[in-house]
Specification:
The chain is mainly α. The chain has a domain at 67-236 and 299-337. It has helices at residues 19-60, 66-88, 101-128, 131-138, 141-153, 159-177, 188-206, 209-215, 217-236, 248-276, 278-284, 287-298, 306-323, 331-337; strands spanning 12-13, 16-17. A two-stranded antiparallel ribbon has the order 1-2. β1 (12-13) and β2 form a beta hairpin. The protein is globular. The N and C termini lie far apart (54 Å).
């Protein structure tokens, strides 16, 4: 027993911390871990917003073609994620996904239809409009999951989910028309590709859950990116679309899109997700549209009108609505489907 020398209860008893000290140490460790989780999710949202703006910079200032940028980005990020998986996950399981026919089919769907379509449509929306609009339209994904779950369960969504769907529809309407149904202020190309990106986001938020649980998140995402990159190379032939400026600024922006927008964001988000859970992670990472808006306005000099900001706010508010505590009629299924957890854009 160690005497404190001041009449207080000793901190150690028989060489071990007393229970009260152990409890305080555990509480302090939990608080520190939670703060780390918050910080990781917030920083992931900031990094995604920055990477999207760098993509817009490459299109507008450097003249890059989306048919070159996306295959190059996905293949580079896929190789880096597989390298990370060999250190952070079971390296002997890197080829496990190819040993089962069902796993391979799921991987191809996840990679080509999920990651590939999501990436291509997201950056095409950026090219046709701006990074903020593309980012906000992606936030329609969780609302689409709600509608899919309700259709599958053959029951109406709960009250809070109905409000979220209504907010998303109204926000999209304001973005596209500024409140005037006779005119389209957002280009048709941007609107169509933006909605496609939301569908792709919804798909790859739900589809790979069994596969990632079996083979590992980094491994599945890395191979999914490789599959998507090869498919896009065969489909779009990026070597025929090498246009624009390739100076230091352009290469730095491309490096940001690959390293920060894919590898770093992915690691930060899933580190935070493991600590704070999907609901808080989805809310905290909603810093992405805020950062994207600030960069679009102050760096890329995009002009937004009040109706644009109102549309942004309505769509992003759906994440906060779906993250509120309380049960809805389809809550268990929507939670299982990942409604409150928009996945990283990889």
């Amino acid at each position: 027993m160690v005497d404190c020398g001041n009449g207080a209860a000793p901190f150690f008893l028989n060489g071990r911390p007393r229970p009260i000290l152990t409890e305080r140490m555990e509480r302090g460790s939990t608080v520190a871990s939670t703060r780390k989780g918050y910080f990781c999710c917030l920083l992931a949202g900031v990094a995604w917003g920055f990477a999207g703006s760098c993509g817009q910079f490459l299109f507008e200032r450097c003249g890059w073609d989306v048919d070159f940028l996306i295959p190059a980005r996905i293949l580079s990020a896929g190789l880096l994620l597989l390298l990370a998986a060999s250190f952070l996950e079971d390296r002997h399981a890197l080829l496990q996904v190819f040993r089962d026919k069902r796993d391979l089919i799921d991987l191809l769907i996840f990679g080509i239809v999920g990651i590939g379509l999501c990436q291509y449509s997201y950056y095409t929306t950026i090219r046709a409009s701006n990074a903020t609009t593309a980012t906000v339209l992606c936030y329609l994904g969780p609302v689409l999951i709600i509608l899919w779950v309700a259709l599958r369960a053959r029951q109406l969504p709960g009250g809070r989910e109905v409000v979220a769907v209504a907010a998303a529809v109204l926000g999209t309407f304001l973005l596209a028309t500024h409140g005037d149904p006779t005119s389209l202020t957002l280009s048709r190309e941007a609107l169509i590709w933006g909605i496609i990106s939301a569908f792709a986001t919804a798909l790859y938020s739900v589809q790979p859950k069994r596969l990632t649980a079996k083979c590992g998140t980094l491994t599945c995402t890395g191979w999914g990116m490789i599959a998507a990159g090869i498919f896009l190379c065969l489909l779009r032939r990026p070597w025929q679309h090498v246009t624009g400026i390739f100076d230091a600024a352009a290469l730095a922006a491309f490096g940001t899109v690959v390293l920060i927008g894919s590898v770093l964001c992915f690691g930060l988000y899933f580190t935070g997700l493991a600590i704070v859970g999907p609901t808080k992670a989805s809310v905290l990472s909603a810093t992405e549209p805020l950062v994207s808006t600030l960069l679009s306005v102050f760096w890329l000099h995009v002009v937004f009108l009040p109706m644009d900001y109102l549309g942004f706010a309505l769509i992003v508010s759906t994440i906060f609505l779906l993250a509120l505590p309380g049960k809805t009629r389809s809550a268990p299924e929507t939670e299982q489907a990942g409604v409150a957890q928009p996945q990283p854009r990889s």
